Amino acid sequence: MLPALASSQKVYEYSRLRLGVEAGFENFFGSNVKPPAIRESQSYYRYRYNDYYYDCGYLYNEPVFTRFYFGIKPEYSINQRLAVSSGLRFSYGESSLTSDRDYFLWKINETETTTNYLSITSIRQNVHCIGIPFEWKFFTYGRDVFVRHYFKTGVVLNFAFAQDVLVHFSNNEMAKYLPEIKKQFEAPNSFYGHLILATGLKIGRMKNPFGSVEIQVPIHFTEKTNLSSLFKADVPVGIGIQTTFYLPFGKEK
After folding, report:
1. How far is 146 from 144, CA to CA, in rounded Å?
2. Phi-psi region of 50 (alpha: psi -120 to 50; beta: other; left: phi over 0)
């Protein structure tokens, strides 16, 4: 009788606390932003192909903004189905514009009588952020089986701490004007937050080191979040994938 009672009171077969190491990426879809300094006239780019004439738009790039991230995230089980986590995340995002021909022209300065341009083959902006995630995970099955499904929601607070602009000139002698180009760039938001909705699978027993993989839907708090000076998100909703490796701490309960 007593052994049976003791067995029924054993709720956990694993430690409630574990350390997670996460990595993932998020894609946002929208349109490229052409800075005002790029020359407006397209006559130089008119060409003929199969008896048809085309006016190129100076630039070609897939209108997608991708952000990669890596982080450390402790997680704690409140009960057999519910777990909470928080931590620190480092992310990197980039956007670029590339000439659809040999180069495009960038207006560097202008006077009453003259206008000076630089010829550029591509330009890229890098943005680095520190993020703080707060997440809630709900397992649809209570027992700790090898593969277990869960839903997750939470928020991530992002703080941009560095950004840089990289330019490839058609002539290396123009590189001395790079500081002037950087001054013409509008900086992205220094702070922005987004909501996370996700579904995934926990793979492995929680009393041992295990992993998870999930599909995420990040939703920015505002539609006008400025992720980059070269990209505009048409909608505040994206799509992403995250993988996490967990290391249990403490004794089994």
Report:
1. 7
2. left
